[in-house]
Design brief:
258 residues, Protocatechuate 4,5-dioxygenase, Chain B, 18% strand, 10 helices, globular, six-stranded mixed sheet
Length: 258
C-alpha cells in the first residue's frame, strides 16, 4: 500500500533553489508507486473544521510576498478531485468529525511547491484538507486516521509543513549555513520519538521535546506531520526519508508512514 508522507516544504524558494531537500523531492516521485490522486494537508490552509477543496482544475495560490518575479510566474494547476473530496468528507463523518467542502480554493505553496518537484507534469488529481491550528496534535492524528482508508485506493496522503519553523532565527542569504545546537537537539529528539513509537511524547511534544517552543513558536507547521502519521494507520511504522536544513534553522526532514 502506498505510504503516507510528511514533507517539509520550507521556503517557497525551494521551488527554485538548489538544495539537498530540492534534490530529494525531485527524486521522490520516482521512488514510490504512482498515486491515483494526492491529498495534501498543508500548514498554509487553516480552517475552523477540516475542509476539502473540490474543484475541477486547481489554481495556483501565491500566498507569499517579497520573492522574485520568477516564483510568482510559476503555475502548478493539476486536475482537482471533487468526488474524492466528498468521499473524504464521508470518511470523516463516519469517524464522528465535522467537515466542509470548498468549491473554489486552489493549491497553496505548501502543496504546489513540493508537488511541482515530485510530479512536474501536474497530471495527477490533487485536493487539499485544511488544518485546525487552534486544536492539538491529537486532533490531527485522529484526522489522519479517518483518512487512512484512502491509501487502499492508491491515494497519496501528504502532510506538508516544516520539521522546524522559527522564521525569526533563519539566515535567508545562507542556504547551507550550520545548524544551531538547539535545532539539532529538537530534531534528534523528534526523530527518536517517531522511530520508537513514543506516541505520548509526540502528542505532548511542546512540553517534552527540548527547545520545542523555540523551534515551533506556533504549531501549524508541525500539525501536518500528525495527519500523515495518522494516515499511516493504527499500527504505524515510520521511515525517515530525508534529513537536511536550509538557512541555518529550517529543518527539511521527511518521513514515510505505513
Amino acid at each position: 500500500m502506498i505510504p503516507a508522507l510528511f514533507l517539509s516544504h520550507g521556503s517557497p524558494m525551494l521551488a527554485l533553489t538548489d538544495a539537498p531537500a530540492r534534490d530529494f523531492l525531485r527524486g521522490l516521485g520516482q521512488t514510490i508507486e504512482r498515486p491515483s490522486a494526492i491529498l495534501v494537508a498543508s500548514a498554509h490552509w487553516e480552517t475552523p473544521v477540516p475542509a476539502f477543496n473540490a474543484v475541477t482544475r486547481n489554481a495556483t495560490i501565491h500566498d507569499f510576498y517579497g520573492f522574485p518575479p520568477a516564483l510568482f510566474a510559476m503555475r502548478y494547476e493539476p486536475p482537482g478531485a471533487p468526488d474524492l473530496a466528498r468521499h473524504a468528507a464521508h470518511l470523516l463523518a463516519a469517524a464522528g468529525m465535522t467537515s466542509t467542502i470548498d468549491a473554489q480554493r486552489g493549491l497553496d505553496h505548501g502543496a504546489w511547491v513540493p508537488l511541482t518537484l515530485m510530479y512536474p507534469d501536474a497530471d495527477i488529481p490533487v485536493l487539499q484538507v485544511g488544518i485546525q491550528s487552534s486544536l492539538d496534535p491529537a486532533h490531527h492524528l485522529r484526522l489522519g486516521r479517518a483518512l487512512a482508508p484512502l491509501r487502499a485506493d492508491n491515494v497519496l496522503v501528504i502532510g506538508s509543513g516544516s520539521f522546524t519553523h522559527n522564521l525569526s532565527r533563519l539566515r535567508p542569504g545562507s542556504v547551507d549555513a550550520p545548524q544551531p545546537p538547539d535545532v539539532v537537539a529538537f530534531a534528534d529528539w523528534f526523530d527518536a520519538a517517531i522511530g520508537e513509537g513514543r506516541m505520548a511524547d509526540l502528542l505532548e511534544y511542546r512540553a517534552r521535546a527540548p527547545f520545542a517552543v523555540q523551534q515551533h513558536p506556533t504549531d501549524e507547521h508541525l500539525l501536518p506531520l500528525y495527519v500523515a502519521m495518522g494516515a499511516g494507520g493504527e499500527a504505524v511504522s515510520a521511515e525517515r526519508l530525508h534529513s537536511s536544513a536550509m538557512y541555518s534553522g529550517l529543518r527539511m526532514d521527511a518521513y514515510a508512514f505505513r
